[in-house]
Amino acid sequence: MTAQPSTVIAKPKPRRKPIATKSREVVILHLYPEELNIYGDRGNIITLVQRLRWRGYAPKVIRAGIGDTPVIAKADIIFGGGGQDRGQIAVGHDLQRHAKALHTAAAAGTPILTICGTYQLFGRDFTTLDGTVIPGIGIFRARTIGSHLRMVGNAVVDTSLGQLVGFENHSGRTILEESQQPLGTLIKGYGNDGRSGKEGAVIHQVYGTYLHGPVLPKNPALADTLILAALKNRYGIEELEPLNDYLEELTAKDAASRPQ
Amino acid sequence: MPVFITIALAKLILNLSRILGRGGGSALPGLVAERIDPAIGHKLARRLRDGSIIVTGTNGKTTTVKVLSKIFSDAGEALVVNRAGSNLSRGIVSALIEHVGWGGRFRQHRGLFEVDEAAMATVAAMVQPKAIVVLNLFRDQLDRYGELNSTAQFLGKGIAATTAQLYLNADDPLVASLASYAQPSQVVYFGIDAAPTAKLASDVTADSNNCPVCGRALHYSRNFFGHIGHYSCSEGHFKRPQPIYSANKVVLDPDAGQFTLRDKDHDPLPITIHLPGLYNVYNALAAASIALGMGATSPANVAQSLEAVEGAFGRVEKLSVKGRTLYLLLVKNPTGFNQVIQTFLLQEKQQNLLICINDNFADGRDVSWLWDVAFEELYTQSHSIAVAGLRATDMALRLKYADMPTSSITPNAKKALRQFIAQLPEGGTGYIIPTYTAMLALRKQLGRMTQLEGVWK
Questions:
Q1: Predicted confidence (pLDDT) per residue in B178-210, tens digit
Q2: Complex ipTM, two decimals?
Q3: What is the number of alpha carbons within 13 Å of residue B435 lying toward its C-beta?
Q4: Using omega within 30 degrees of 0 as the cis cutoff, is the peptide bond preceding A214 cis?
Q5: Is residue B11 a part of any domain in this protein?
Q6: In this complex, is the C-beta atom of A135 within 8 Å of any C-beta atom belonging to chain B?
Q7: Is residue B20 part of a domain?
Q8: DSSP labels, B206-255
Q9: How many other C-beta atoms can be found within 10 angstroms of the C-beta atom of residue A177?
Q10: Residues A181, A114: Cα–Cα separation, whole Å
Q11: Is the domain of B298 the same as that of B152?
């Protein structure tokens, strides 16, 4: 197995309108990388960066924490991961500053991936076990409530993008409203609430999931869905140059075969 | 139930499990004894004349216990010590059962126990130790322990249930904040004043880097690794406490470390340890602080014992196999792995590595943490890296996304070890980096090839 050279240039694609920028930059906005950082979700950023680089793009990662003022409208891909409860309360309040801009980005089709803690905060709210209500931003029509059950283990989900595999570790139960489409149906694992058999949520190009692992390295179909949406929005690109995903597929197969 | 009956029954089980060869009886006798009499641990521990010492924290427990055992045994004191890794309540009770006489008396006067962070609340209350040392708190096996802040709370509960002297790492903000669970007079801090190495550029781990009062990110004037260093809150709520025992003039090389130990009661004490890396300076410093703080022996004797200590079981072991030198380096979490990278893998180019990742229960089922390890640091080293274990492919994938190839992917760890040794040149050096259960399997196999010190021979 050899690493992909980083200098592969994608075949020229027809552009809907000419662009004036010097290089094919792609801006990835990482929300709260310091506050929500303990579950290896940074691997998703590494994956987006590398899969863009391997296709000849120039990804640029902007990290925005509590109190920072990122320009959400300039982000081509937005990502937020999972963290500890203490971090999440502070993040929930800070996130309100970006609520309007994030709603606008979501409606405009900006690809957004939210994992665990950030997924919960993209719902309407999160009521913790002691009754504290952490406000969300209501992009997903969902609410989360704390529970005594820690839902931990390997998970496999059947989705329209194919089978996704990851590792979940949460005690919040996320209840989707009738009109909210889940990301997929569980083959193995607890998923949103340990009861409904559903995992995650999706609206426009906004994806919410409990899957760590991290989720993107082992599920290149999801990574490339986000990337293609970003490149389509910014450069009018309709199709991605395929990469050799043999190792990714092998790893996903191994992970899916492990006990829950 | 009279104590001696519980002792007798548990001792019988201990002897039986030894005869049957089931894991050397490191947990079962304690488990049974606690079933018969839930207070047996407390009843036995209080029979130790000089009380007990508890060592806890995420990384370095086993090594620190080993260093402390050496200091005390060189000073002529026999200790009751639990076996490496048997660090839940039952493991400590088993050790007590093993060493107590049939009549309920101990030949030893003191206990020295490595205690799992999550078990601290119950074990500290049971043992009522004279001293507790907290080494550090990193995220580790979040699938088993939950969040790091909950782990700190378990420790706090344990501390609050005792009147023990606390030896806290001043350089770890979450550990230093545990002082709030005790009276100020109980707290003794140790820390490193200056170190020759700084945090790796691509080390992103900072598992607990916010102010416990206001939650703002702490400012670091020195950051050695992870969230370890000299920190302060910009609002003035919280800062690194001044250590009573401090390490200065630290010098590190791949096999050893040197530092000068300073405290107000003694002359500066030059110390050499044959354990590599800054993390082992912390372990040695912690052990020396307790030994001096408890007046166990003279500073000169402490220095002498420290110099004679070798690496603990599977943590850092250097072996010779068929004319090749092998290092066995246990990894459990991102901070520990980053320390292995910093200490061993940036010395020379083109080293030979075998990384073996398992996801059994004792390893932690979740391998997500591999993505927070600073593998990017290795890119320019051009090492030859073989990967093995139940999650070999996950490891290979992590390396692929750090632009590094793997020389082979072998799920079977034993087969991988054979191949790894076979392809090492005569006189060459190999670095074997396993998770916990992979370490046990590899060590067993290495034991057949060479003489190894250890619990399971």
A1: 999 999 999 999 999 999 888 888 887 777 778
A2: 0.90
A3: 28
A4: yes
A5: no
A6: no
A7: no
A8: -SS-B-TTT-PBPEEEEEEETTEEEEE-TTSS-BPPPPSEEEEEEEEETT
A9: 12
A10: 15
A11: yes
CATH number for position B370: 3.90.190.20
Residue B6, both tokens: 């519980």
Q: Cβ contact (<8 Å) for B405 and A1? A: yes
Alpha-carbon dihedral of residues A126, A128, A134, A138, nearest 10 degrees?
A: 0
Identify whether residues B210 and B78 lie together within a single domain.
Answer: yes
Please confirm, yes or no, whether A98 is among the known catalytic residues. Answer: no
**Closest partner residue to A40 among B359, B368, B402, by Cβ?**
B368
What range does the domain containing B149 cover?
A: 48-97+104-308
Contact present, B182 and B159 (Cβ < 8 Å) = yes
Of B210, B370, B405, the CB nearest to A40: B370
Residue for token digits 């913790």? A128
In this prediction the pTM is 0.85
B124 and B265 belong to one structural domain: yes
Q: How many residues does chain B have?
A: 457
Same domain, B370 and B281: no
CA distances from B64 to B112, B167, B312 (A): 10, 13, 9
Written as six digits, the tokens of B208 are 């607990």
Q: Which two tokens stand for residue A54?
A: 């391997």
Residue appearing with tokens 């107000």: B264
pLDDT at A9: 37
The DSSP output letter for A109 is T
The count of C-alpha atoms lying within 13 angstroms of the C-alpha of B278, restricted to the half-sphere facing its C-beta, is: 29
Q: What pLDDT, in 10s, does the model give residues B127-152?
A: 999 999 999 999 887 777 777 888 89
Are B93 and B80 within 8 A, CB to CB? Answer: no
Question: Could you tell me whether strands B316-321 and B324-329 are parallel, antiparallel, or unpaired per DSSP bridges?
Answer: antiparallel
Let me know: does A156 contact A256? Beta carbons within 8 Å: yes
What's the whole-number mean pLDDT along residues B327-348? 91
Cα–Cα dist A62/A157, whole Å: 30
Q: Per the structure, how many domains does chain B have? A: 2
Which stretches within A29-110 are classed as H helix?
42-53, 85-95, 99-107
CA distance B86 to chain A (A): 24
Q: Please, what is the angle between helix B89-99 and helix B120-127, to 10°?
A: 30
Task: State the count of interchain CB pairs (< 8 A) between A and B.
Answer: 113
Nearest CB neighbour to B204, from listed A42, A87, A154: A42
**Contact of A166 with A213, CB cutoff 8 Å:** yes
The residues, any chain, with a CB within 8 Å of residue B271's CB and separated by 6 or more, are B258, B259, B260, B261, B284, B288, B302, B303, B306, B307
Q: How confident is the model at residue A25 (pLDDT cuts 50, 70, 90)?
A: very high
Specify if B23 maps to a domain.
no
Residue A203 and residue A179 in contact, taking contact as beta carbons nearer than 8 Å:
no
Containing A198, the helix (H) or strand (E) segment is: strand A198-199
What average pLDDT does range A117-138 have in this prediction? 94
By the CB < 8 Å criterion, does A7 face chain B?
no
For residue range B65-82, what is the model confidence (pLDDT) as tens digits?
A: 999 999 999 999 999 999
For domain A25-256, give the CATH number: 3.40.50.880
Cα–Cα distance measured from residue A224 to residue B149, given in angstroms and rounded to the nearest whole number: 35
